[in-house]
């Protein structure tokens, strides 16, 4: 597992955060405008950060991979990650959040491309899923090329396969 990771796009780069960058994660999760459509704000007290960091950012089990999204001015604008990687089925759950004040600039699409490229081409993933309840998230995943697996009430389960991702890359 990489202890440091960075992937650059044209608008943003993603990287595994250092422990001292978790203040931004707390800010992101506490931002009501950002979090109101994904279930509400999440408290991230200092005393919980070390255990979270070991599990999500620098894990020993190889099941989680977490990055912050930065502009090239080194301003953090969101997070992107995958979780609960199943080594047998080569599948995981996807997560992306762009802080509300930075939305609409193309950052999400590029961050998705960067982490999915790593996930499918370097990490060994075959399929990734995302359960989405908010309309902006649904639209972003559909526009990127995720496929709908199922719908229940306002919740939509999306998936992206390695084959589909490579197909989308080849169309660009």
From TrEMBL:
Q: Where is the signal peptide?
A: none
Record's keyword annotation contains Iron-sulfur: no
The yes or no answer to whether the keyword Ubl conjugation is present is no
Residue ranges constituting the N-acetyltransferase domain according to the UniProt record:
12-167
Query: What keywords are assigned to this protein?
Result: Transferase
Q: Which Pfam families match?
A: Acetyltransf_3
Checking InterPro entries in the record gives: Acyl_CoA_acyltransferase, GNAT_dom
Q: What highest taxon heads this organism's lineage?
A: Bacteria
Which molecular function terms from Gene Ontology are attached?
acyltransferase activity, transferring groups other than amino-acyl groups
Q: Supply the name of the protein.
A: RimJ/RimL family protein N-acetyltransferase
> What does the record give as the organism's lineage?
Bacteria, Bacillati, Bacillota, Clostridia, Eubacteriales
